[in-house]
Amino acid sequence: xxxxxxxxxxxxxxxxxxxxxxxxxxxxxxxxxxxxxxxxxxxxxxxxxxxxxxxxxxxxxxxxxxxxxxxxxxxxxxxxxxxxxxxxxxxxxxxxxxxxxxxxxxxxxxxxxxxxxxxxxxxxxxxxxxxxxxxxxxxxxxxxxxxxxxxxxxxxxxxxxxxxxxxxxxxxxxxxxxxxxxxxxxxxxxxxxxxxxxxxxxxxxxxxxxxxxxxxxxxxxxxxxxxxxxxxxxxxxxxxxxxxxxxxxxxxxxxxxxxxxxxxxxxxxxxxxxxxxxxxxxxxxxxxxxxxxxxxxxxxxxxxxxxxxxxxxxxxxxxxxxxxxxxxxxxxxxxxxxxxxxxxx
Length: 345
Ligand code: VTB
Fold this sequence. Notes:
globular, D-Maltodextrin-Binding Protein, domain 2, 8-stranded mixed beta sheet
């Protein structure tokens, strides 16, 4: 993959983050999402690439932009021959979430990010629009903790791997009714729980870095975003596992149809014969080359949110590349007009 792509991709997430950050705290999550989608798509379509959205805003009939299967990049235009030599270009797959944690942005809460992951064609699992049970943990615990074990067992393993007592561990869980038992079990095992209202991608990525004081993410979130988390954590050598959740009674949101049986049939149609399969990070993001980029919309543990000043804005982005084996924190000043001053910190 072209190494200049990394820099362009940074601008894609930056533009999405700036667009939704303008709507931070306005209470309108759909609008915060819409503007991020538009900005992301607009910038993406100016990149010299042949891209295809594999995880996006939904199926074509329900999403006007960045729908699954949408082709993006200059080299997908009808007149592409004038700009690109098709033989020279690798086809790339892209997973996007232009405003991950839309509620967080709409209510000015921490942890909302504009994120995407890229790989060569076929390198990202095209996760169905179901839920996913997730387990994320730091690199030292990779392959030791296991989603098929109980939370209590995993906390013991985590405590050994990280060489800290269980009560020194912090586990992030989304505040949902479906997690009542999970939360109780983690507490009884002695660990501390950080409940978040939304935004498990940011929580998962926090597990990849020591110093965030987040040692695990447990619980059920959306499946497509699980692939984006997996892409980041795979590059960091951290632990991520996911298992699809297709039973509406387990999820309790009324968002995934009427019955478990119908969902199993739907998964089969999509080619998923074993709906209970556990996927590791390198199966969800299996590509030879993986690139992850995320810009903070609202502030989080790892990244600042977007800060506006007269004539511009400042963003912070995390870019992780499996190719260059780097995790870069990119701090950018965007000068939209002639700024009155450029804020240094
Ligand atoms: C969201 C969101 C998460 O999962 O809650 C969603 O905040 C699904 O859960 O970050 P609900 O339907 O119960 O809200 C994520 O988007 C990503 O996994």
